[in-house]
Amino acid sequence: MAEATERVVAPGADDLERAAEAALRPRRLDEFVGQRVVRDQLSLVLDAAVGRGATPDHVLLSGPPGLGKTTLAMIIAAELATSLRVTSGPAIQHAGDLAAVLSSLEEGEVLFIDEIHRLARPAEELLYVAMEDFRVDVVVGKGAGASAIPLSLPPFTVVGATTRAGLLPAPLRDRFGFTGHLDFYSDDELERVLVRSAGLLGVELGADAASEIASRSRGTPRIANRLLRRVRDWAQVRGDGRLDIAAARAALEVYEVDALGLDRLDRAVLRALCTRFGGGPVGLTTLAVTVGEEPETVETVAEPFLVREGLMGRTPRGRVATPAAWAHLGLTPPPLPGQLDL
Ligand SMILES: Nc1ncnc2c1ncn2[C@@H]1O[C@H](COP(=O)(O)OP(=O)(O)OP(=O)(O)O)[C@@H](O)[C@H]1O
What we know:
Largest sheet: 5 strands, parallel
Bound molecules: adenosine-5'-triphosphate
CATH architecture of the largest domain: 3-Layer(aba) Sandwich
Helix content: 40-55%
Strand content: 5-15%
Mean pLDDT: 92
CATH superfamily of the largest domain: P-loop containing nucleotide triphosphate hydrolases
Structural class: alpha/beta
């Protein structure tokens, strides 16, 4: 994802970053911070399956990027003492690609399908049957002479991850015996993620620095870990090596991440909305042109967090700034019509 390399607060990650993340991933369920409800439910599903000596139900994990879906898939395989096979919706172009993956699975393995909502329809249909009946129909020949040879599969567990559970067709959703929804993390939980990561990186992180970084991490462990690495760089190059509150503030200033976790683009959008359009409503395209970005970038990169933070609203007539947006930018909103001093 290009966005990830450009923005220190992007929720997604590219391959290079995923490699840096690998060292910080919790390996077992009891190391996984937060998400108490999902963790608790999942531990019951897994312990029961292990106790019965059977493979657990298929698991669907949904939630925004960077909250730990891939990490949980790895943990599930580790807790079941089996291996994890990884693929994704976009990587499977044809049903045959999925049939090849499924027919190579060994008994009890976990198959992780990231972005499962992006599977093509024929692959989806093949997956229902495989999940329910542990069977794939291998098509031999073409046209009128084609025939399907059923191939039975050993029992296995699918872990599907999606940022858009609503896009999964009901028949596929129904094949998952357990669905866990991951929510944004509280600041306290992010502090615990940061303290754990600092320990693994071998750096000392002050309690107030952890709290400062957590509060700017947009509820997302991936962003927290990324900001921690930037603060570590700053401390090493410009500071005395200590990750204290001064280092945290100075590094986050360099990366233009403010107290709420907004970056330059987020603030540019809000500022344009307030100062150029009197707080709106204004159409997305006009707003995007004003900040020199594509409408899609504003809509997918800046807007979700601004709306979530209650800084921007979406109305049928366009985007509006909320009172919190004016306050955050240190600006005074125009008086409401009834308050005009005529
Ligand atoms: N609960 C957690 N405790 C500690 N670290 C976490 C937790 N959740 C996520 N992380 C860390 O955040 C990073 C991103 O997590 P992960 O790759 O699992 O997210 P994801 O939801 O799969 O994201 P994507 O949808 O982009 O693939 C990892 O380095 C992981 O170590």
